[in-house]
Amino acid sequence: MTEPVQHVEYHDHHTEHPTPRAYVWVAILLALVTAIEVAIYYFNLPDWALIAGLLIFALIKFLFVARWFMHLKFDERVFRMLFLTGIITALFVFSIVLSIFFLAGDGGPAPLVNGGG
Amino acid sequence: MATQDIVLDTQEHTSTGVDNVKLAMWAFLGSECLFFASLISTYLLYRNDVLSGPTPSEIYDIPFTSVSSFVLLMSSLTMVLALGAIHRKDERQMRVWLLATAVLGMVFIGGQIYEFTTFVEEGMKLDTSTFSSAFFVLTGFHGAHVTVGILLLLTLVMMSLFGRLSPGAERKVEMIGLYWHFVDIVWVVIFTVVYLIPTNG
C-alpha cells in the first residue's frame, strides 16, 4: 500500500504540460497586454487611473508567465508556496522600509525636487 | 543511458516527495524576489530625487523600451517551446529554440547597452543624481541576470551538441527555463514601475 503512494507523489506532472499551441496563445495574450499597457500610457488619464491600470496589466502578465511558462499552474503546490513566500516577504520588507523612511521623521529620503537642476 | 534518464527524471525518491533540485531553484527564485524588491524599492524612493541631470520623463524612450520588453516576453515563449521539445526527446528542435531564446536575450541586452550609452551621452551618469544611481543599479543588475541566463542557455546548447546533456536533460532545461522566466517576470515589473508609471519630474 505504501510503495505505490511513494511513486505517485514524486511524478513531475510531465503529462499535464500544455501544448505548444497553448503557449503561443499565452504569448499572443502577453503581447496584447503589453500593447494595451503602452497605449494607455499615451492616453490622457488621471494619474490614479493610469497607475491602477498599469499595475493591473503588470499583474496579469506576471500571473500568466508564472502560471503557464513557469508551470506553477500545473506543478506541486510547494513550489507555488516557496515563490509566494519570497514575494510576500519582499512586500513586507518594502513596507517596513517605507514606514521607517516616512514615519520615523528625519531618517527620510532626500527631499523630492522636481524638474531637475 | 535511456534508463538512467528515466530514473533521474521521474523516479528519484526524496524525503519531501518533490524534486530537491527544483525545490532549491524555487527557494533561490524566492530569495531573488527579495533582492529585486529591495532594488525596486530604492528606485521608487529616489526616482523623483533629481538635483541635477535629466528627469525620468525627459530621458525615457518608451517606444524603444516597449520593443525591448516585447522581445524579452517572446524569449519566454521560445524557452518554453525548448522545454516542450526536450519533453518530446527532440534535442535538435530544443537546440533551435534555446538558440532563439539566447538570440532574443542578446537583442534585449544590445538594446539596454544602447539605452545606457544614450543616457550617458545625454548627461545621465551613474553618479549624476540619486535617481540615476537607483535606475542604473536596478536595470544594470537585471541586465546582468539576463547575461547570465544567455550564458547558461549557450552552455546547454553546447552540452547538447557534444552529447553531454543527458542524463537528466529535461531537468536541466527546466531549471534554466525557470531562471529565464523569472528574469522575464522581473522585467514585467520593472517596465511598469520604472518606465510607465509617471513621476513628478
Sequence-ordered SSE layout with sheet pairings:
The complex is a heterodimer of chains A (117) and B (201).
Chain A: H1 2-10, H2 20-42, H3 47-69, H4 77-103
Chain B: H1 2-10, H2 20-46, H3 56-59, H4 62-87, H5 91-121, H6 130-161, H7 169-196
Helix pairs in contact in B: 2-6, 2-7, 4-5, 4-7, 5-6, 6-7
What does this structure look like?
The complex is a heterodimer of chains A (117) and B (201). Chain A has two domains: 17-75; 76-106. In chain A, helix 2 runs antiparallel to helix 3. By secondary structure, chain A is mostly helical. Chain A is 70% helix and 0% strand. Chain A contains four helices and no strands. Chain B is mainly alpha-helical. Chain B has one domain (19-48, 63-196): Up-down Bundle (Four Helix Bundle (Hemerythrin (Met), subunit A)), CATH 1.20.120. Chain B is built from seven helices and no strands. Chain B has helices at residues 2-10, 20-46, 56-59, 62-87, 91-121, 130-161, 169-196. In chain B, helix 2 (20-46) runs parallel beside helix 7, helix 4 packs antiparallel against helix 7 and helix 6 runs antiparallel to helix 7 (169-196). The model of chain B is unreliable at 1-11 (pLDDT under 50). The interface between A and B is large, with 59 and 70 residues.
Quantity of strands of chain A, as a count: 0
What would you give as the CATH superfamily of chain B?
Answer: Cytochrome c oxidase, subunit III, four-helix bundle
Instruction: Estimate the strand proportion of chain A.
Output: under 5%
Biggest interface between chains? A-B, 59 and 70 residues
DSSP strand count of chain B: 0
Largest sheet of chain B: none
Order of helices and strands of chain A: HHHH
- Low-pLDDT residue intervals, each spanning 5 or more residues of chain B: 1-11
Q: Span from first to last CA of chain B?
A: 61 Å
CATH topological fold name of chain B:
Four Helix Bundle (Hemerythrin (Met), subunit A)
Strand content of chain B: under 5%
Query: Which sequence of SSEs, written as H and E, runs from N to C of chain B?
Result: HHHHHHH
Task: Report the biggest beta sheet of chain A as strand number plus sense, adding barrel if it closes.
Answer: none
**Number of separate domains of chain A:** 2
- Give the CATH level 1 class of chain B: Mainly Alpha
Fraction of residues in helix of chain B: over 70%
Q: How large is the count of helical segments of chain A?
A: 4
* N-to-C CA distance of chain A: 75 Å
